[in-house]
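WARN no homologs supplied; continuing
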Amino acid sequence: MNRKKLRENLERYRTPFEEEGSFVQDFIELTHDDLAFVRERLQGHFTASAWIVNKRRTHTLMTLHRKLNNWLQLGGHADGHENLLEVALAEAQEESGLTSLRLVDSGIFDIDRHTIPQRGDVPEHFHYDVRFLIEAEMNEPLIISEESKDLAWIPFDTVEDLVGPNPSILRMLEKTSKSEILL
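OK structure emitted
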């Protein structure tokens, strides 16, 4: 999925979630920026994430992010790589050690634009996060990367208790629970 294909997928992307729908056009416009896939674009840049679920759709794999100190899905910066699906899969493997990762659907699962706080000399900026639905085996050992404080399979019914009122994660959880792709 190169820049052109990403733009086409975003132009076709539909969501019933008002907040998510409100920034689709911003994602499309960002695909026209030459620096969209590098973190040096200080006002904001693309990132990619994997919403990892088990086969039975009862748990999701989440990381306690070391820098942000929040429970989040796995993912990271594109660092110049325009194929965000490949970025999401690579980040998921790197941050979990899992080898059983399987793409559920090649389409975009979710998008989210969120603010990253200033850290050192890097100013506050946006992450334009493109997310993909990934399945993995829960019985495979997990390897915690240096980017994480912890890594755990979280039961769907306790995700909200863990993340609080995070609309982005709760939206992905709702999509997972309702999606026909998962049956």
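The CA atoms of residues 109 and 175 lie 8 Å apart.
OK
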